[in-house]
Amino acid sequence: MSSAAEQEAVAGRRAAGNGQDERPAAVADGGPRRAPTAPAWPGAPTPLGARFRIGPDGVAGTNFALWAGGAEAVELCLFDDGGLERRIPLTELTHQIWHGFLPGVGPGQRYGYRVHGRWDPWTGARWNPAKLLLDPYARAVDGDFRLPPQVYGHVRDWPEQQAADTVRDDRDSAPYVPKGVVVHDDDDWADDRRPKTPWADSVIYELHVRGFTALHPGIPEELRGTYAGLAHPAAIEHLVKLGVTAVELMPVHQFAHEDHLLRRGLRNHWGYNSIGYFAPHAAYAASGTAGQQVGEFKRMVRALHAAGIEVVLDVVYNHTAEANELGPMLSLKGIDNRGYYRLQPDARRYADYTGCGNTLHVVQPHVLRLITDSLRYWVTEMGVDGFRFDLAAALARSMHDVDMLSPFLAVIAQDPVLRRVKLIAEPWDVGSGGYQVGAFPPLWTEWNDRYRDAVRDFWRHALPDVREMGYRLSGSSDLYAWGGRRPYASVNFITAHDGFTLRDLVSYERKHNEANGEGNRDGTDDNRSWNCGVEGETDDEDVRELRRRQLRNLLTTLLLSTGVPMLPAGDEMGRTQGGNNNAYCQDNEVGWVDWSLLEDPGWRALFDLASRLIRLRHRHPVLRRRAFFSGRAHSADGLRDLAWFTPRGTEMTEGDWFAPAATLGMYLSGRDIPGRDERGAPVVDDSFLAVLHAGERPVGFVLPGPPWAERYEVVVDTGLEEQAAPPGVEHPAGAEITVPARTVLLLKVAG
């Protein structure tokens, strides 16, 4: 049915007395319990949100300020512990910001907004004062989002679904939605010492607050699944033993569960469905949700900092939990739908560059302000050290196309707070032209999925040649050597939260997502995995040994590559999701880290190898370079900072790069490292030869002679199950050694 036809059909059902905006007929119920009101003092339009302070005449209270462009009226709604609601009109309006000061209102007060305006979905206007709305600047949220029909601005279950979003629902949503909480500001970070780890020295560990701590036997039960649990010494001990320098927390902004999951008895586990950009997700708090979650989060950050570990947040500013025109009305949609979201030309429907139903309109100044205010808040008041931006290409879009001169990127580049923290882009979205790997400007690092794909393909012996592998191992200069960017612009990863775990990557060739309730249609089919001959778990010891060897190969490749390595929690000890490559709704043992794996000698050995490789990386600057390799000789003997070798012990020619191959030798010179240390001295290190062999049969490899080396010492051999102590085997230069099938050898130049 066309838009005009829909309007005509709905017009026939309009109720009398709806007023000049001619709203479609609404479903109504009894109003909420109300308390007497007192007028608000004028207050101030800045800062936005609810801020407790001392007002006129020394009176303590809270200033409330809400941007609601186009709204006709705004009511502040205060709730007591019994749910009694008190509505206070905000009558002051400054530059589209409604504001007022409430004397006597302090921390712990629960609140929301009702915003009045036209109901005209055909022009994008969706104001509905029956819906209680979460303050976009709320610093704490009390309660969880349920999604009964009452929380939708339209009649969700209208018989004619093609017109449902145009029929306003006048039932009150307040009993069914969480409330914002006034929080006392605490900016005291005097006892906090940020690690400030340089990018080149960083090793990132992607973890889920709940999933990482839910089963940890060393964390008290009452703290498992919480910020306090992650701050517990037992959790931090694992991070320190592993040697990572930063945790990248999967979304901790307040989020909501999708309706289709709740109807199937599932929940959103990953949290990529944000609705409160200033509030720590309340369900991860052990201490309470009436503002206590803020202090608990800060204490977690302090504990990690004290252990030398930075905190990076995975943030979702590209879309919200309100979905498309058929989604719930929780916050921005009811404050100013047209002002906050990108709409299609017909204005009724949403532009969707995210695959999640809506896209925030970052070109709008107030939306850009919301995002940057949120980012600064998490840095300055919550103590975090950086951000990974989900679907960052959506944020870099101007009106339609991705634009690396977009307002968002320009504001970040000049912001005195944000330009100093770690910024990681997921450099794509689902819209046209959204794939932007290598295109983000200096200051940014990027998730490098070309690294992921090349390494996966090499170890399943699916690359046509080794050109791609050479670029990825040496820092991806083909993608990042422009505009002053450095090798650490590449965040190297083989697995992440999205997709197979590392163990599943070598155990499954097909996704097994039946538990998600979507007929195994969700999740990617492009896994680039190899199950080593058997699909899923097996008792065949030969297959099990091969899989463990492949895991060692993948981990070793990741941690020897130039760039910033990222490892998802549990991959270092063989975590499995049973072949589920989209466990976003598995808030259970499928999505949690299984700590009992460390009791198995085989998986404990994998952890020991990962820890040893990270320590090796920390000790040797040649493995974490701050500048790209030149490949040129810097001395009379012809020694270069980077050289590539065939199994014959000869340097690779152009023809070798284009020929099918399963073996690659990479020489890293510690004598030619550019830059100086903190005291101005030249950086000098050992030199290494890495031999990566993905073939199914052993291969002979001739060790290069002078000027490269006189002899070599084996440092890592992934053909060995136990890696607790260095192999310590030496070989003279020019000798032909046997590299077992599917093995990485790392040899240190010994003379």
From TrEMBL:
Record SMART domains: Aamy
Biased segments, Basic and acidic residues type: 513-528
GO molecular function, one term: amylo-alpha-1,6-glucosidase activity
Region described as Disordered: 1-49, 513-536
InterPro entries per the UniProt record, alphabetical: GH, GH13_cat_dom, GlgX_Isoamylase_N_E_set, Glyco_hydro_13_N, Glyco_hydro_b, Glycogen_debranch_GlgX, Ig-like_fold, Ig_E-set
Record-level GO BP terms: glycogen catabolic process
Low complexity bias (residue ranges): 28-49
Key word Ubl conjugation present: no
Keyword field: Glycosidase, Hydrolase
Record domain Glycosyl hydrolase family 13 catalytic: where: 206-617
Protein family: Belongs to the glycosyl hydrolase 13 family.
Database matches in NCBIfam families: glgX_debranch
Protein name from the UniProt record: Glycogen debranching protein
Classification of source organism: Bacteria, Bacillati, Actinomycetota, Actinomycetes, Kitasatosporales
